[in-house]
Specification:
Blueprint: E1 8-12, E2 26-30, E3 52-57, H1 64-79, E4 82-83, E5 88-92, E6 105-112
Antiparallel strand pairs: 1-2, 1-5, 3-6, 4-6, 5-6
Length: about 110
Amino acid sequence: MNPAQKALWYIESHLAGPLTLDEISAVAGVEVTDFSDLPREFQSVRIPEQKYAVFTHAEHISTIRRTVNTIWNHWLPASGMKAADAPHFERYDEKFDPRTGNGGLEIWIPVRE
């Protein structure tokens, strides 16, 4: 993805129990090519390379639970894949309008054979 798109990533981890600084449960951010120009108050997160299944949610954001439920409870079991131990993402690009909740997004689920 081109960093100039200023995409918003929502990152969730599959962690149980209290979180430490090393265990991020959610973060909003923008993809960058390097971390050298980030303001001091910003933190950087590197996401390791991973195989992902990518789904489009084109409806209003209020219906995202239905899409997520379908992915986890129907698509994933039927696919023969398993969820990998890695972050999953919601990717919002310039088409998404946070004022209206319209514009769609992508849901990235880490998978393994």
